[in-house]
Design brief:
heterodimer; A: MetI-like fold; 11 helices; B: about 270 residues; Rossmann fold; four-stranded antiparallel sheet
């Protein structure tokens, strides 16, 4: 009853313009101040170009096709790395979550590997794969693997055993228990893992592209640095932020779609 | 709302009476720790048996053995003369914590485990517990009492011949508990399943059961038929007398039962 009543109230609050514009107020003012300071010459464009210059750079690179090509290359690396690392992490998380023998066999080894920061492997990875795409995709996979693995595993292990017992009494077979209880019960934790994984995916890619690449957003930034094109450097950084935000929004949408029952979804 | 034809179908189904349960020489130990020893108990089809006893005396253990979730150390359980092996297919359990799946709506919780996720039967069961208007709510939008009703509907939707209730009302407030007791009694009368209720409330046991069983130190120390007419008046003297008798047994108190019963019969006649 209370829930049903509080919903329209919170909705009417949300529909007020102030509620919608408030989060944008601070960033918008900062940009205006930044623009003014840059135009009045308080900040050298060498240090930080004005917002309009960054937009100009973006338009210039879009028209030349360079922007789209580099974003495309970065996205491709991110997605391939994510698919590989994510699917291995998910499979092993499910396997170890469901099977104690598998956990005993694999989990402590995986935990040991986890203690190595995956970016520390860069020199080794370059020795193995050269500086081509396989190296970057390997690093991204590795970065994505652990948050997915750990949260899938933990999600399955945190299922209330009483619910499984109930499922058994109500005649669910092993497979039905998995699909109807284990998986939906572990889903909130898995999505937390997904969010971390996407964060690490970008981080890894930024580092990997910055250190050694001949295309991609990171390369675009490093290349621009050599030519003192601060506007392109800042634009690349903002691009990473934008893509990170996009990934986060996708996870939020997934949560709203997959977990409509979850307390986190009742606004 | 249900159509008449689906109600008819369900009614035909429920003419199947309750299961006959025979417990023979049943013992259960956890390691060296004996919980139940040499339990003998016959439960007639459609009978309502309540089990009371101190916490930890093995009530839930007995219920779990009946459900087939645990295996006896010794002895056997016969359902309609057939020895019980593995999970009891005729039984459904209602637990103290409702054990509903929060990621399913009310109706989908009720139809869990039905071979064909029959919405009509789910609706019928929800109607039986008075919650048909909540079919499409999430579990988190229900009160504790409503959750237990959903759990009851889930237990009854498959028309079990044996309903096992493990302190199903233990977490509810007093008023809701009274309501639920009446609901359980009515559904039991209507559907004629055999009911096995574990409770720590002696009053609840006397109110609902045809027979109250007290478990103490692993054995049945009292097996008391309750022949009061239904619906029972928990304020009546006979009711109070039976309650005191059971409580005395559980708490190991000595009284002079003669004097009490004389007083009561005198007032009654
Ligand atoms: N799985 C188990 N392993 C070991 N001991 C158990 C287990 N289940 C119950 N027990 C013990 O058996 C005794 C009876 O438990 P239970 O049947 O749950 O009591 P209650 O009458 O309160 O329902 C308790 O002492 C409990 O500690
Ligand atoms: Mg118990």
């Amino acid at each position: 009853m209370q829930i049903a009543q509080s919903k329209p109230i919170s909705f009417s609050w949300r529909s007020l313009p102030w509620e919608q514009f408030a989060p944008w107020l601070v960033p918008a003012s900062l940009i205006v101040i930044w623009q003014l300071l840059a135009q009045l010459g308080f900040i050298s464009t060498r240090v930080l170009p004005a917002p309009t210059q960054i937009v100009e750079a973006a338009i210039r690179l879009t028209l030349s096709g360079e922007l789209l090509r580099n974003v495309g290359v970065s996205l491709y690396r991110a997605l391939v790395g994510f698919s590989i690392g994510g699917s291995i992490g998910f499979s092993l998380g499910v396997l170890n979550g469901v099977s104690r023998p598998a956990e005993r066999l694999l989990d402590s080894s995986l935990q040991m590997i986890r203690n190595i920061p995956h970016l520390a492997l860069i020199p080794l990875v370059i020795l193995w794969f050269g500086i081509g795409d396989p190296a970057r995709i390997f690093l991204v996979s590795l970065g994505v693997f652990f948050p997915i693995y750990i949260n899938t595993f933990a999600g399955i292990r945190s299922i209330d055993p009483n619910l499984l017992e109930m499922g058994k009494v109500y005649g669910l077979r092993q497979r039905e228990l998995f699909w109807q209880i284990v998986l939906p019960g572990a889903l909130p934790s898995m999505l937390v893992g997904l969010r971390y994984a996407l964060g690490l995916m970008w981080l890894t890619l930024i580092v990997a592209e910055t250190i050694a690449a001949n295309s991609g957003i990171g390369y675009m930034a490093m290349n621009a640095r050599e030519f003192m094109q601060t506007d392109v450097v800042v634009m690349s950084i903002l691009l990473y932020a934008l893509l990170g935000k996009l990934a986060d929004s996708i996870v939020r949408a997934l949560e709203a779609w997959l977990l409509p029952w979850h307390p986190s979804q009742s606004h | 709302m249900n159509t008449i034809s689906s109600d008819q179908e369900v009614l035909n189904y429920s003419t199947d009476h309750g299961a006959h349960v025979s417990i023979q020489g049943l013992s259960k130990s956890f390691g060296d720790f004996p919980v139940l020893s040499q339990i003998e108990l016959e439960i007639n089809p459609g009978e309502f048996v309540a089990v009371v006893g101190k916490s930890g005396c093995g009530k839930s253990t007995l219920l779990r053995l009946l459900s087939g979730l645990d295996k006896p150390t010794e002895g056997a359980i016969y359902i309609d003369q057939q020895p019980l092996q593995g999970l009891n297919p005729f039984a459904r359990v209602m637990f103290q914590d409702s054990r509903l799946l929060p990621w399913r709506k009310v109706l989908d919780n009720v139809t869990l485990g039905l071979k064909y996720q029959n919405k009509q039967r789910g609706q019928w069961a929800l109607q039986e517990v008075g919650l048909s208007d909540r079919a499409h709510r999430w579990i988190t939008q229900l009160s504790g009492g409503q959750r237990q009703r959903v759990a009851l509907a889930r237990a009854l939707v498959s028309q079990p011949r044996l309903l096992l209730l493990d302190e199903p009302l233990g977490a509810l407030d007093a008023l809701t508990r009274l309501e639920m007791q009446n609901l359980i009694e009515n559904l039991w009368k209507e559907q004629q399943f055999t009911a096995f209720l574990v409770t720590h409330e002696v009053e609840e046991a006397v109110y609902l059961a045809d027979r109250v069983i007290v478990i103490e130190e692993g054995i049945i120390s009292l097996n008391l038929p309750i022949s009061l007419p239904r619906p029972r008046n928990s304020g009546s003297l006979e009711f109070a007398e039976l309650k005191v008798r059971i409580l005395d047994q559980i708490l190991g108190r000595q009284r002079q039962p003669e004097r009490h019963s004389q007083e009561f019969t005198a007032i009654e006649s």
